[in-house]
Amino acid sequence: MNGVETTSDIVVGIDASADAESALRWACAHAGLTGRRIRAVLARGPGGRPRVVDDISPSVGVDDLERAASQVLHDAVRRARLDGLAVDVVERTVYDSPSDALVEESQDALMLVVGARGLARMRRMFVGSVTARCAQEAAVPVVVVRGPAPPRPDDRPVLVGVDGSEGSLAALRWAAVQAGLRRVPLRVAHCWLSEPPLDPACLPAFDLAAFDLAAFDEAVLEKAARLTLDTALERGLAGRTDAAAPDIAVEAVLVAGSAAHGLIMAAQSAQLLVVGARGRGGFGGLLLGSVGHQVVTHAPCAVAVVR
Length: 307
Known about the structure:
- By secondary structure, the protein is of the alpha/beta class.
- The protein has helices at 18-34, 51-56, 62-81, 98-105, 130-137, 166-182, 218-237, 259-266, 288-298; strands at 10-13, 38-43, 89-94, 111-115, 142-145, 158-161, 186-192, 250-256, 272-276, 302-306.
- It folds into two domains: 10-145, 3-Layer(aba) Sandwich (Rossmann fold), CATH 3.40.50; 158-306, Rossmann fold.
- Helix 6 (166-182) crosses helix 7 and helix 8 (259-266) packs parallel to helix 9.
- The longest helix has 20 residues, at 62-81.
- This is UspA domain-containing protein.
């Protein structure tokens, strides 16, 4: 994927949890900016459907469970509409597991939006199963939402982590569109450590053939980090002309520390943190299995994982 919004619906996973309803509200707000349609999806397969579906169903019959699932989904959509956002919402219940249903439904989607935590019996699956599988296998950007709805209007910046990899450049381009839609600053962060990495490939700004571990001090590493950040900005944003991302204020920042900790701390003042699904690895890596996993789990704001 090129990280740029083009077609189709915003798919939202619904499981009757508070975070899922926050995800639906986030998606509705985004749809209000883009004119897109929401596709709210509730999985009702055995072992995956919300407990409330069983609680309100008069029997375990297939028809009764389907009607109960539809009612739970409709109630969630109705509550989200109380925010006054006039957006088009299509409601779908799917007889499948949550992860299978959401990955499949997102195949033709613009993005997939999920809550950070589901209901109690599903919480053990957070990141380790449903969210992680969506972030790793969905062919579109996946946004993980937690906590109550943000203030409106929200003038906090969109934050994106870059490490010079193609994945982080795709995230940068996608983040620029989001900042443009929201008319807020785009904050571009590169995290760096004051010690040489074990893998010289994490220093893309240098000639690896001339790499000399003993010659590297903090000043040299900071210079490499600055060059990586500047190069990412040049490659990721130069020549952008799409209408969805008009002129936006771009703030380029170096963050001292590991990628995960640095981005989580920087996200304290952001409304959305964007990372690439795959990075370079090492100190600058944004690999979902490590840094991505940590920011999805611990960042205080919504997190988007972009391919």
